[in-house]
Each structure stands twice: as C-alpha cells, then as structure tokens.
Amino acid sequence: MRQKVIFTVPYALWILLFVIAPLVLIFYQSFFNIDGQVTLGNYATYLTSGVYLKMTLNSVWYAFLITLVTLVISYPTAYVLNHLPNRQFWLLLVILPTWINLLLKTYAFIGLFSRTGTVNQFLQFVGLGSHQLLFTDASFMFVAAYIEIPFMVLPIFNSLAEINPSLINASKDLGASQWQTFTKVVWPLSLPGVKAGIQAVFIPSLSLFMITRLIGGNRVITLGTAIEEHFLTTQNWGMGSTIGVILILAMFIVMFVTGEGRQKGGTALMKKHRFTWGGLYLALVFVILYAPILYLMIFSFSAGKTMEKYHGFSFQHYTDLFADSRMITIVINTLIVALLASLIATIIGTMGALVIKDSRGTWRNSLLSLNNVLMVSPDVIIGASFLIFFTVLGIRLGFVSVLLSHIAFCIPIVVLMVLPKLNELSPTLVDAAYDLGASRWQTLSRVILPAIAPGIFAGYFMALTYSLDDFAVTFFVTGNGFSTLSVEIYSRARQGINLEINALSTLMFIVSLLLVVGYYFISKHSGRRNRIVAVKEGDAQ
Amino acid sequence: MSNNIMEFRHVSQQFGNNVVLRDIDFEIEAGKFYTLLGPSGSGKTTILRLIAGFDQPTSGEIYFDGQQINDVPANRRQVNTVFQDYALFPHMNVAENVAFGLQIKGVKKAETDRRVKEALHLVQLDGYGPREITAMSGGQRQRVAIARAIVNRPKLLLLDEALSALDHKLRVEMQTELRQLQRQLGITFIFVTHDQEEALAMSDQIMIINDGTIQQSGTPVDIYDEPLNHFVADFIGESNIVPGVMKADYLVTIDGQDFECVDAGMRPNERVEVVIRPEDLDITTADQGKLTVTVDTQLFRGVDYQITAHDQRDHEWKINSIHQTTVGAQVGLAFDPEDIHVMRYNESEEDFDARLDSYEEDD
User: Fold this and answer.
1) Which of A304, A483, A495, B212 could covalently link to A311 via disulfide, CB atoms 3.0 to 4.6 Å apart?
2) Which domain holds residue A508?
3) Cα distance from B105 to chain A (closest Cα, Å)?
4) Interface contact flag, A439 B87, Cβ < 8 Å
5) Distance from CA of B143 to the nearest CA of A (A)
6) How far is Cα A521 from Cα A532, in angstroms, rounded to an integer?
C-alpha cells in the first residue's frame, strides 16, 4: 500500500499541475481583456472583427494544403519503402531527419531560398531568372511539408506493414489486377495510417509559428503565430488564450474526424520486390530530405560568411563557435536542463506507468487520456498555458520554469515508452516472484524494473532528445537571459545567416546521429521486435 | 492432528457477484500427489491461488501445517508454484532463475550454487545453468520452472496446468518424471489440470471440481470405477449413462429389462442412473447379448474401434472394442454384473461412502 501511495503522488501532482491546471487557466484567461477585466469581448472580437476569422480560415487552408502535399509525397514513399529489403533500415533513414533540430532545418532554407541563394543561383543557371523565394507562402508551405514528411510516412508505413501479405495474394488469386488490389485492398487497409498521419501533420501545421516567422516573414498567417504574437509581443494574453481555445477546439475536431488513429510498429514479412521506378522516387525523396542538412554542413567548412558561395575549406566557424562563450554557456544550460529534466521525468513517468498499469476500467482510460494531453497538444498551447501557470504561481521565468516545463512534457513520453513493456510483462511473473519469497520492493527492484528496463532507457532517451530539441515551449517560458540552444538558434537565425550556426548544426547532427545509433542499439537489444520507429512527434509540433 | 499439511474449512470465494468457490472442505495429507481436476472455470485455479496466497478467501479458513494462514502473503508461505506459462524471468539465465528464491532468502552463495546445481540435476538439466531462457525449448523451460520451485524445498508444490503447453509425447514423458520426482523428494504435490488422463496417470488422490464445489475425491481407481454422479462419470473417461430403477439390492431395471448388479443400499424402486463404461461392453451375436443394438458408426483408433450403436428405445451406446464390426449390423452387447455401476441422484460423498461401507462389510 505504501508503495502505491509513493508512486501515485508525484504522477498525480503532475497531472493536476501540468495537465489540468494549464488547460483550465488558458480557458479562464480567455475571458479577461488586456486590462484584467472579465469579459466576453475576446470572443466577440474574434467572431466579428473579420481579421481573426480570415486568419483562422487562412491558417486552416494552409494546414490543409501542407497536409495534402505531405500526404501525396509520403504515401508512395511509405509504399515503396515497405517493399524494400531491410525496410526498417530505410525507414530509419526517413525518420533520422526528425532527430535534427527543427530550427536548424528551417535555417538551412533561409540560405537555400535567399535572393542570391543556391536555389536562385540554379534557377538563373537554367535561365529561369532569380525570384523572391523567401517570405512567400509557397516557401512556407514547402518547408512545412519538408518538416512533416517523416511524420506522415511513419504511420502509413506501419499500417502498410501490418497488412497480411496473404490478403494481397488472396486478392490476386480472386482475379484483381495490381491496381484493383491497391484500390480495393491495400488503400482501405492503410487508411488508419493515413488518418494517423493527417492527425500528426494537420494540427502542427496550424501552429508552427517559428517556420512562419523565419520562412514566411513577419506576416501573421497561422493560429500559432497569432498566439505567439499576443502572448510575447502585444502582451494581450486574453486574446491569445481565446485563439488558443480555438486551436484546442480545432485539435479536437481533427482528432474526432480522423478517429483513434494511433499506430504501432508492426512486423509482417513481405516478399522482396525490386521497384526500379519506386527506387528512383525514393532516392529523390531521400535527396530532398537530406539536401538541406548536407547543405548546412558543407557551408560550415566554408571560409566565407554567407551560404551563397563556397569560399574554400576552413575550420574558422568552428574556432569561432568554441570561442563564443555565450554559446558555450547556452550549450551547457541546454545539456543541464535536458539531463535533469529527462532524469526526473523518467522517474516520475515510470511511477506513472506503474500506477496506470495497476488501475482498471474507466479510471485507467481517464489516466491514459490525461497522460496523452500534452502529447497531442500543439507546443504553442503548452507554452502559452505554462506561461500563464508560472505567472499565476509567481514563479520567475528562467532556469526553474524551463526545467519544470521540460519535466512536464517529458513525463508522458516516458509513460508511453514504459507502459507497453509493463503490459508485455506476464502477470504470473509477478506472482512467481512473490511465490519465491520476494517482498513487494524486491519484486519491483529484481523482477519488474529489470524486465521493463529497456522501456525505461528508451523513455529516458526519448525524453532527452525531446528536451534537447524543444523550441516552442522553452521560447514561451524562458526569461531573465536564460536561453537554450533552440531559442538561441531562432534568435540568431532571425538576424540572418551566421555560419557559426552551420558549424553548430554539424556538431549537433553528429550528436543526434550518435544518439540515434545508441537508441537503435538499445531497442534492438531490448526486445523480440525491433522497434526503431519511435519518432519524435514533438518536432512536428 | 494427523499429518495433514493443508486444510480448507468452509472456504468460499467471491469476485463481486460471481461465486467461484462454495463452501469447500478438504484435507491434504503430506507426501502425496494430489490432482485438482475440473473443466475450465470450475474453480480449480482459484483453489490453487488461495493455497499459494495470491488471493484471500471471502470466507472460511485455510490451515497450513496446523496454522491458520488466511492472511499470510504469498512470499511468506512455504509453498512454491510451477506456473502454466512457467513465468520464468526473461532477464535472468537458467541458473539465476533457479537461484532467485534462495537469494531472496539470503542463502550463502556457495550453498546457493550447490543447491541450484542439485536442482538442475534433478530435472536433468545439468550444465544448462548459463543458458538464456530464450535459448531453451518448451520442455526445458518446464524443467527450469520445476527446478526453480523445488530448489526452495517447499513443503507443498503447486503445479498449475503445468504440462498443458507441451506436446502429447513430451507430456506423457513429463508425467512419469514428475511422479518420480515427487516420490524422490517426498514433497506434497498439488497438480491442477483439466486433462483427466493426466490426472488418472499421476495422482495418489484426485479431487474433481465443478461449479465451485468438490464433486468427488478419491483414488483414481475409485473415481473411475465408482463415479458419484453424472458429472463425474461423464468427465472421467467415456461412459454410457442411462436412467434406471433400483428394484431391490443387486437388481436394477433399465427400460423394463432387469439386470443383475453389485450395488445395494438404496430404497426399493428408487430412480437411479446406470453407468457402463464403453470398454466393458463386449459385442456378440444378437441372440447372445443382454441388449440388442444396431451399429451406427465405427472409427478405428489404433488400439481399438470406437463404435456407436442404438437400441430399440433409441438409447445411444458407445462401445470400445478390439474387434471390428459392420455398420448397420444388429449385434448383441454382453457385460457382467460388475460392469454396471449405479448412481443415486444428489447423493453426497459422505452418504455414498457410508452406503458403500454398509453393504461391502456384509460380503
């Protein structure tokens, strides 16, 4: 009994303080005007001014286009991937870019799309002339789609992989052509994956304010940008919260329409096919996925100061980077926050998973839903609601607020990584430990924890990368000069090209790569099933 | 007290509104091989979980070695279990699994090693200690699970459907081995199964459980030859059960035809059920048999033919015969008075035993 209480308290506190309270607060705040008076004025303004409605429609329209483009690119990618030998490896390659800081990828496009940038140089070379690419809606959509592709490929791939190959043989046996088999069997069976993909892409597309800012220019065109502007620039939290409530509503609508589309990794065996056209298509997707990253890395070794022309090999930017004491401090800050936050989140999250595992029925379902709130909420909502929360509690913005926020959004990740391992654990295993004389604590420490250790490690690792990578939440809740890498990259990128960032991104890419290899190693050694397909959804948000 | 290691007194178990055990009473004598036999959902696994201490009874008392142990948790009971799915710890190798209970008790390393080795020897897994569980076959895992339990020298070993995951041949082999192991160690075994052949083959004593009550307990031979009621007769072995009337002691009427039998002690003209085992029926010519039947089906099963037939009143008869017959033929069925077993409706086990004693003493 004591054990149960000890485990329940931290997790319950987290749910209360960081899941329920912020949501309540953002709703509550939406009824206050900028002078702190209770009012319905925010909603009235939203509905009548025309500006907000137009902005919402615009935002939804762009999100729709981004989702559509992403789907059109991703479905064939997932389909071809699924027919490759070693498909898990190729899938990993598609997912790999998601482990690279979102802001760095966005930053790469600033260089690529600039007036004298590489793309324009190419267009001039083929005689199409140079164009204004940066700060256009098209470039915003392109970059957003680029970022979201892996999040669409993964669920579709998983649902395709789950299709029993004998169903396809059965379809052919019954006389269906290749195309008929696809439209009548494969496509309907992969719909859950498509829905999950749409869910994973559409909501973030409504709220990706950093891409809008860096690539789309300063125009307010998405709900996310509007929230960020109201909270951090005009300080009209009431209006910002109102838009936040609208965004939450939109989120629920999308989730309702696309249903419960959560997908798990599957492992069905498929025949090895050789798809030449498919292979070509896939190669193209890989080029698009990796070109911006390579582009960044190449210019990090350029002696010049811009990403337009390569000026010869130099380590200059690396020397600058290591001499930049502000940057070094920020790297250390980021690491401290990430290590601490993921450690604490792993402890609380593991306890939470044990609590959920022991609960039953509706209680269990409510706990799971509450656990997942922060997983599905757009980062702007988390950031804005935490900002209100810290302000109400009088917690100074800075290291503490950032650390608490990171712990808060890492906990559900750990729970989701540990819980499947707990569910895999046969109940007789626990009985067997008691039967052999072990006490409750001995059973926990000698049987349960070792058996779920791979899940705990994976959870810690995922939490670590989420924390290292987070931009939006930190951006909202930081203050007093405290900064993390993502925030720093964002503010430097807003000032233009700085090849020190290229050097930094090269180093981060290598670190990410090592982390991924580490994670791959852990998951490969942890279970019967190779589950390398855990993506960082946070990136998409 | 006698040497009863385990005793249930008026034990009932209820989960919500679902009554799983009703007023169970039994005693387990030390050093014997017991089997709890019943169909799935009969409550046999619940009894096992109560003995092991995973659950507490809703009412009634459980005694272990003369001590009431209702509230003693599983980890403090001198009882070990071999689980149906073996429940071997996947993150430990064979030796570590077997050593687990000893390590928990704080047994010294040298002794632990010695006893683990000894236990692995007993289950014929010498040298398998460093193997990973995943590298072991189903039968080997079964042995590891047994070794892990017996290494603790429990007074009582519980085996929950322990052989059901094995294929037929391995199962039969393990039955012999388990029986040998039990004799060798002198530990009381309580084996839970739904497989009646397994129960008959291994046990000193069988308890037949159905619907949360003990239907009958006794030696395999007693239960097979003298089933108490319709359920037991039907569940253990194959049987022909037909309604009859007990005209007088040693005389029963089936459909107006009188048969000599060896049962007595009932009221005159009491309505009863008559059991005749298929292997006790011999096929002869129509005029030589006590009953005349028409053969409906015949299946060759290797050791014998399984034949079904019907008599003039449409009772179906199952016959196991080593001689072939012809489908559609009219044949006679012959049997001896000893082959007839008469069951009274709703007779309790006590009454049944008392009645048997009353007329067997007369002989």
Assistant:
1) A304
2) 2-26+39-540
3) 7
4) no
5) 15
6) 9
Whole-Å CA distances, B11 to B25, B43, B59 = 7, 12, 6
Structurally, chain B folds into a number of domains equal to 3
Instruction: Give, in order, the Cα–Cα distances in Å from A410 to each of A61, A339, A448, A469, B355.
Output: 31, 11, 22, 12, 73
In terms of domains, do B309 and B260 share one? Answer: no
- In chain B, residues with a C-beta closer than 8 Å to the C-beta of A3 are none
pLDDT of the residue at B240:
92
**Exposed / middle / buried, residue A31 (Cβ in 10 Å: 0-12, 13-18, 19+):** middle
Mutate to test the interface with A, among B75, B132, B133, B190 (most CBs of A within 10 A): B75
Q: What does the mean pLDDT of chain B come to?
A: 90
Q: Are residues B293 and B326 in the same domain?
A: yes
A126 Cβ neighbours under 8 A, 6+ residues apart? none
Chain A residue closest in CA terms to B49: A431
Instruction: Please indicate, yes or no, whether residues B9 and B44 belong to a single structural domain of this protein.
Output: yes
What pLDDT band is residue A538 in, cutting at 50, 70 and 90? very low
Q: Is residue A33 part of a domain?
A: no
User: Is A436 at the interface with chain B, CB within 8 A?
Assistant: yes
Helix axes A316-323, A499-526, angle to 10 degrees: 80
Read off the amino acid at residue B65.
D
Nearest to B152 among A428, A431, A436 (CB): A436
- Does A32 fall in a domain? no
Q: How confident is the model at residue A102 (pLDDT cuts 50, 70, 90)?
A: confident
What's the gap in Å between the CA of B238 and the closest CA on chain A?
Answer: 34
Of B75, B90, B91, the CB nearest to A437: B75
A308 vs B11 pLDDT, higher one: B11
Q: Are residues B78 and B217 in the same domain?
A: yes
Interface membership of A429 toward B (CB under 8 Å) = yes
What is the number of domains present in chain A? 1
Distance from CA of B120 to the nearest CA of A (A): 17
Residue A143, C-beta contacts closer than 8 angstroms, at least 6 positions apart: A105, A106, A109, A211, A215
Question: To the nearest 10°, the Cα dihedral for A454, A457, A458, A459?
Answer: 120
CATH of the domain at B301: 2.40.50.140
Q: Is residue A91 part of a domain?
A: yes
**CATH code where residue A416 lies:** 1.10.3720.10
pLDDT in tens, A215-241: 877 775 788 888 888 888 888 888 889
Write down the residue that tokens 């683990």 correspond to.
B116
B195 located within any domain: yes
Model confidence pLDDT, tens digit, residues A153-190: 988 998 998 888 888 888 877 778 888 888 888 998 89
CB contact under 8 A, A432 and B89: yes
Phi, psi of B42 (to 5 degrees): -80, -20
The tokens of A139 are what?
């470039």
- Check CB contact of A449 with chain B, cutoff 8 Å: no
Distance CA B207, CA B215 (A): 7
Structural domain contains residue B214? yes
* Same domain assignment for residues B326 and B344: no
Residue B232 lies in a domain: no
Predicted confidence (pLDDT) at residue A2 exceeds the cutoff of 80: no
Top mean pLDDT of A260-274, A455-469, B220-234 is at B220-234
- Measure CB to CB from residue B74 to each of A428, A429, A434 and give the nearest one: A434
pLDDT at A49 over 60: yes
Kindly state whether residues B294 and B189 are assigned to the same domain.
no
CB contact under 8 A, B83 and A442: no
Query: Do the Cβ atoms of B89 and A451 come within 8 Å?
Result: yes
Write out the two tokens for A352: 């939470």
Task: Note whether residue B311 is domain-resident.
Answer: yes
Domain that holds residue B255: 238-276+337-363
Compare all CA atoms of chain A with the CA of B55 and give the residue at the minimum distance. A431
- B296 and B270, same domain (yes or no): no
pLDDT of residue A433: 93
Looking up residue B172, the CATH number of its domain turns out to be 3.40.50.300
